[in-house]
Structures are given as C-alpha cells and as structure tokens.
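Give me structure tokens for this 363-residue protein.
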Amino acid sequence: MSTTEQMDSTDSQYDSVVVTGGTGFLGLHTCQYFAEQGWDVTALDLKPFNEEDDTEDIDYIEGDVRDEEKVSEAIEEADADVIVHSAAALPLWDDDEIWEVTVEGTRSVLWAAKEHDVERVVYISSTAVYGTHDTHPITEESPLDGVGPYGDAKIEAENVCRDFRRMGMCVPIIRPKTFIGPQRLGVFQVLFDWIEDGANIPMVGWGNNKYQLLHVHDLVRAIEMMFTLDESEVNDEFNVGATEYGAMKEDFQAPIDEAGTRKRVVGTPATLTRFALRVLNKLNLSPLYPWVYETAHEDSYVSVEKLCNLGWEPEYSNQEALVDTYQWYLENYEESEDETGKDHRVAWDQGALEIVKKVFKQF
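Here you go.
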C-alpha cells in the first residue's frame, strides 16, 4: 500500500486531541490547524489564549503538565483520542524548572495518557539533543549530546518516551529545528526590531555557516502525519527542518531586503562575540542564552529524509520562513513595556543589546 493510500485510509481514525502547552507559540498553531481540520481540540496550559487569538472552536483547560491528576482530568473531559505534548521550558528558565517541566511533565502526561488508553502521544523534542556535530547533515542515529540543561532535559524526556513505548504505547518523537512563523517573537523579535529600526545585523562569526530553520506550518503538518500513518511507521524519532537553506548571511539578509533599509548582515569574530555575550548573560544584561550564541557560528542542519520518505515535504525555505514571520511582525506587533517575558509569544527585554543596536545603526 502506498503512503498516500495509508494516509487516506487512516485519515479519520482520530478526531479529538489535547495539546499541552496549547496557548504557546507551537501550541496555538497546532490547536488552530487541527480545529480547521474538523477535530475537537482542547488546549491545556497555565495561561489562557490571548484575546486576539482565533480560538472560537478550541476549548481551554487551565493546568500544569507536572500535575498528573490535572492532565488526567483534561484527557477525560476532552475524551481525547490522542495528545500533542508541546509544553516545554525554554533554555533561559531556571535549571530546576527546565528539568521539572521537560522531564517530570513528560512523565506525568504519559502516565495519564496510559491510564486513559490514549492511542498516541506525539512528543515535541528538539534538535538541541544533538548538541554540535562536525559531520552534517545530522541524522536521527547521530549521537546525542545536549547543550546545557535544556538539551540534557530533552534527552531524558525522550528516554521517558521510550520507556512508555516499551509498555506498548505509540509515542512518536519529533525533533524540530528552530521554528518560526506568525506569532513568533522572543529572540526573533530582537532581530526584527533591529531590522525595523534600520540597524545592521551582526552575526556570531562571519555568517558562512549553514543554519537550518523551519516554518511552524510545516512542523504542524509533520505532527499531523504522526496521527494519519500506521503506528509501525511513526513510533520512532523524526527530524524536521527546511530543505532549502544556505549560509546564514544570505538567509538572514532576506528580511533585511524585505524591509528595504539597505542595511546588511555583518560578520564578527566568533570568539570575541561569544565572550562578550557570555559576560552580558552572566550579568543578566542580555536575553540571549548559551544555546543561541554558543552554536550560532557553526553549521547546524539535519537530514529530514526519514520524514520525507513518509510523504512529508516542507512548503517554506529558510528565507521564506524568515520573511513571512517578519511580515507578520510588521502588521501585528505593537510594542508594550508590560508584555516582555520569557516565552516565544512575547518580546524579550533586550537589556544592553539596545545600546549595541545604536552602534550598528551608525554604519
């Protein structure tokens, strides 16, 4: 049977999904996409959707993934067939909180799912589990060596998923590259603010390295495949990323050209820049965390052949994803001092980078 036939034959197998972290950046897109496909969708998260979010057909339950009883209540209330477990701590959170949310939260979700006979749980991991590699592209079989507490916690959460596979559950693991798209702020808001303000954009290093990105729409389509194909095909690990990408200085020039500022991407000595960012990070004067500045000057791209062999193809290149996100930013973002925070849907306090921006506007 062909992949297309398999997808057609299982397309209506499930119709009710709980999305953990459902009001976050990925969670929102996942909820909206499945709702548009006619699913019954329930978001589980600590905070509700924003007023401007299009969530009329999406249910919301307040809850913490570390609370197994609350997760169980959400599954029961939603009568969920499947779960997308996208709730996660970000690298700039405290180390203990990263571990609790990422590892213990995953364990809570899977225990609750097992008790309620949930058919499948898709776990959203990260390519941070690979750390840095000299050989590219990185495949699903490449060694795991996470960068910092975030990468280590993702690796352990994947181990928890495999424990539950051995108990008979279907737990596909998705490892996405850095994903962007409408609603994405965080570190990319810093980038877009600099572009809009007419500054040159400094790289960590000279920008000749390849750094693969991913549009959130393509990621959600990959998640959907984990529910439409046979269990034997998807109970595994899958990299997800754009297939069209080039050198960072070329790809990140695209939104600058879109802005028409005549500015450019500027290379810097990687060792000196990393040292400066480490100092600012230690002093809490920069929102950039080690996973960003310690790896930004190196090649970082993964093979997505395994997922493509199942019938998935991305619709966005690196440059298209960056331009699409920047266009949304220009049309929708309104700066507010009250909206800074530590997740992907809010702006981050730039700290000392505001001063650095003024320097890069001068040439």
